[in-house]
Amino acid sequence: MDASAMGYFTKEEWMKGMRNLNVTDTDELKSKMPELEESLNDEKQFREFYTFTFPFAKTKTQKSMDVDMALVLWEMILKERYEHVPLFMDFIRKQSPVKVINKDQWSSFLDFCKVISFDLSNYDPLSSWPVLFDEYVEWRRENQL
């Protein structure tokens, strides 16, 4: 809907979103939801949605997202799609001193989930993943997870 901040819509944002969806009331919006959910099965649209969530979930003055917000969003957006998500979230909660997730980590996590096999057999420590992912892989291997 092109809202500028999470948690509320201005009247202008709401009306623009309704026009963009070609709906005139909340009943039409409700009936449109299955179609919108289905559109997320398209990889390009899902990536656009995922990319949009980073600036949407942080304040304009922040460069990074609070780790608790990132965990909530990963739970909602990625957990059912990718095997790495639950263990990565456990790692963040239990092992990592990370307080924020930066844009590179946020963007790279989707790629990591798509590219790196769950058994980590194709993980190359010399690749250019953020250090947080190197630490996650090391934690998994040390704990045989």
From TrEMBL:
| One Gene Ontology biological process | protein neddylation
Give the Gene Ontology MF terms in alphabetical order: cullin family protein binding; ubiquitin conjugating enzyme binding; ubiquitin-like protein binding
Q: Name one Pfam family in it.
A: Cullin_binding
Q: Which residues form the DCUN1 domain?
A: 1-141
Q: An example Gene Ontology cellular component term from the record?
A: ubiquitin ligase complex
Coiled coil (residue ranges):
none
Its function, per the record, reads: Neddylation of cullins play an essential role in the regulation of SCF-type complexes activity.
Q: What PANTHER family does the record tag this protein with?
A: RP42 RELATED (PTHR12281)
Question: Know the name of this protein?
Answer: Defective in cullin neddylation protein
Organism for this UniProt entry? Mortierella isabellina
Q: What is the lineage of its organism?
A: Eukaryota, Fungi, Fungi incertae sedis, Mucoromycota, Mucoromycotina
